[in-house]
Amino acid sequence: MSDPLAQWHKSIYFVLLGLSDIDLKDSGVRLDYSRESLVALERVVLDRFAVTEAGQRFILRETFHGFEAYVGETLMRVAGGQWAWRDRGSPPQHEGDGPVACADPVLGLVPVAPLDLLLDALTTRSGDRLVGVYDRWAGAVEELRAGDPSWRPAKQRTMADPPEQETAALREWLAEQEAGFPRWVAEYGADRVWDFEPASLPAVEEALRRSVASSEELNAPEHRRLRDGAAWYLGETFRRGLGGEWVKTRAAGNRNFPRVEGMGPRHASRITPVLGLEAVLDTPGYLTERYALASRSVRK
C-alpha cells in the first residue's frame, strides 16, 4: 500500500507548477510565498468558486491541489514545520483524509489542513481567512523570538523549496582554480593574453581545441584540470564584465557544475561555464556570441 504522505511530497512540485502555469496564469497573483500573495490568492478563489456544498467538496478538492500546496508551503515558510497526513476520522474531524501543514512544534500551533482553510474561505467569503492564519503563525514566531532572538523556525525541505547551495564546496573550487590559474596558463595558453576581457574568449576556445575535440574528451578525468581552469576563467570573464555571482546548488549526478547568475543590465542572464565550453567545441565562436547575449540580458 502506497504512503499517501510520500505521494503528496512527490506531487508538490508538479501541482505548484500547474498552479502557476495554468490555474493562475495571467491572474496577476505573484506566487512568492508572501503574506500579500495569500490575500491575492483568496481573492481569486472567491472570484472563481462559489460552490461549497458538502457533496461537491470532492470536486473542489481535485481542483484545489495546487492551492493546498501553496497555502501550506507559505505558512511553513513563516513558521517552519512539515507536512503530515490526516487519515479519515482522525482529529480534528474532517470529511476525508489529506495533507496538513504543521508548524515548528516549538510554537505549539494547531496544524492546519489547507483544504479546510480554503473551504472556510469560500463559506465565510470574508476575504481574510488565509491571511488570518498566516498572521497568527507569524505572531507566534515573533513572540518566541522576542525571548530568544537567535531562534529560527525549522522547515522540512520539500520540492517547493529552492535547491540548497553548496557554498563551502563552491568556495573551495573557486579558490583552487584561482590559485592554479598561472599554472593553467603556462600549460594551456602561454602565448595568449588572459585579462578577463571578452576579447580573450576566443583564446579559451583555442586552448580547448589544442587538447580535446569533443565534450566527451573534455569531461574525461585526464582533462579535468583543463576543463575546470577554462570554466573558471570563462565564468570570471562573464562575472567581472557583466556582474552576477557564482552559484552551485546541491544536486545528484556528475553534471552539477558551478554557474554564474544575475548577469547583464537587468541581472537576468546566467551561464554554466562547463556547458559553454562543451558548446563552443561544437559551435565555433559560441562564447563570444553568448557574452553578447548576456550583455543584453537575453536568457538562453
Number of domains: 2
Q: Span between N and C termini?
A: 44 Å
H/E element string? HHHHEEHHHHHHEEEHH
Average pLDDT over all residues? 89
Global geometry = elongated
What is the count of DSSP helices, taking H or I runs of 4+ residues?
12
Please tell me how large the radius of gyration is. 25 Å
Strand order across the biggest sheet? 3-4-5
* Strand elements, count: 5
Ranges with pLDDT <50 over ≥5 residues? 90-94
Proportion of residues in extended strands: 5-15%
Secondary-structure-derived class:
mainly alpha
Kindly state the percentage of residues in helix. 40-55%
Biggest beta sheet summary:
3 strands, antiparallel
Give a written overview of the molecule.
It is a single chain. The protein is mostly helical and 300 residues long. The protein folds into two domains: 4-147, no CATH class; 167-295, Four Helix Bundle (Hemerythrin (Met), subunit A) (Up-down Bundle), CATH 1.20.120.1090. Helix content is 54%, strand content 7%. The chain has twelve helices and five strands. It has helices at 4-23, 35-48, 57-63, 65-79, 114-124, 129-147, 167-188, 201-211, 215-218, 224-242, 273-282, 286-295, and strands at residues 82-86, 98-102, 245-247, 259-263, 269-271. The strands form two sheets. Strands 3-4-5 form a three-stranded antiparallel β-sheet. It has a two-stranded antiparallel sheet with strand order 1-2. Strand 4 (259-263) and strand 5 form a beta hairpin. The longest helix is centred in the middle third of the chain and has 22 residues, at 167-188. Mean pLDDT is 89; it is low at 90-94.
Task: Reconstruct the topology from this structure.
Elements: H1 4-23, H2 35-48, H3 57-63, H4 65-79, E1 82-86, E2 98-102, H5 114-124, H6 129-147, H7 167-188, H8 201-211, H9 215-218, H10 224-242, E3 245-247, E4 259-263, E5 269-271, H11 273-282, H12 286-295
Antiparallel strand pairs: 1-2, 3-4, 4-5
Helix pairs in contact: 1-4, 2-6, 4-6, 7-10, 8-10, 10-11
